[in-house]
Amino acid sequence: MSENARMSAGASSPDSKETYDVSHAARLSVAPMMDWTDRHCRFFHRLMSKQALLYTEMVTAPAVIHGDRARLLDYNAAEHPLAIQLGGSDPAQLAQAARIAADWGYAEVNLNCGCPSDRVQSGAFGAVLMENAALVADCVAAMRAVVDVPVTVKCRIGVDDQDPAAILPDFLARVSAAGCDRFTIHARKAWLKGLSPKENRDIPPLDYDLVHQMKGLFPHLHLSVNGGVADLDAASGFLERGLDGVMIGRAAYHTPAEILLHADAVIFGGGQTHSAEEIVHLMLPYIEAHLQTSNGRLQQVTRHMLGLFQGRPGARMWRRYLSENVHLDGADSRVVLDALAYVTKEAA
């Protein structure tokens, strides 16, 4: 079976309990992003980097327990190394959800302590958990007790009027004592009142130095930085200064070729590098397989591919052609090839 066929036919439900070195993969990771890092996005990203750690969108513990698990949890085996991010604040619920996720084959369970949305706040989880390190420690301990895969935490440096230099060390100390040895720190405060989730991604100032200070205080912990990292040069700089990993969010989504096509060589020291054009062709079997599923639509996949040629001649027509044609009756992989022709023509 060819690589294309193998990847497009990869398991989309619990796969074999293969183990993955997620700590090494976390040298570079793609952030969990709601409405963006779904299974189609992750498959696309995995074609560009074999080694970076990928995350699901956040899924709440009650949804995992009571919801449509196949819809929420299924993935293609080629997406590994793959982590799930859970939202919640009830230790028993999180433990049950973590066990389900581990049984589903996820290589890591991550607890969201950083999302500032109103919906998350009303559920008393996400960034609001920065105000209750003891509860986070209880949640981590409960999950650790029932799964063999790593349990990690993604957090902010603080919320609202907290003093990050005071509360972040306490948070890390309490939660790591409960069994978490890997944290991803978004180097901004979250303002739970007065700023929207979008504004919380940009307005609070970044404090990278504080994250570096935490590595000095907790040298035994695996610490990754998140927030405002726009390219591999910046990511490499954080690693050279002593941090263990870098998580990239919007840049990895909007300019995926710039970040992920070179990630394995730059961050991990080796690996095959494809061109963006080759990635398009590698996606075609996956697209055709998806279109054969019930309710499979072309736009569900191609919406994640719009930024592939960002900054290159033909990028605007690539985006425009896909946007205007993926919704037409009978739209299939030929639409993608027709869009690619505009890029090829501009490159000639």
β-sheet strand percentage = 5-15%
From the spread of the alpha carbons, the general shape counts as: globular
Q: Which parts are unreliable, with pLDDT below 50 for 5 consecutive residues or more? A: 1-7
| Strand neighbour order, sheet with most strands | 1-2-3-4-5-6-7-8
Alpha-beta content class: alpha/beta
Helix content: 40-55%
Q: Separation of termini?
A: 33 Å
Helix-strand pattern? HHEHEHHEHEHHEHEHHEHEHHHHHHH
Describe this structure as you would to a colleague.
Strand 5, helix 9 and strand 6 form a beta-alpha-beta unit. This protein has 19 helices and 8 strands. It has 2 domains: 266 residues, Aldolase class I (TIM Barrel); 72 residues. The N terminus is likely disordered. Helix 8 runs parallel beside helix 9. 46% of the residues lie in helices and 14% in strands. The longest helix is centred in the C-terminal third of the chain and has 16 residues. The protein is an alpha/beta fold. The chain has an 8-stranded parallel beta barrel, surrounded by 6 helices.
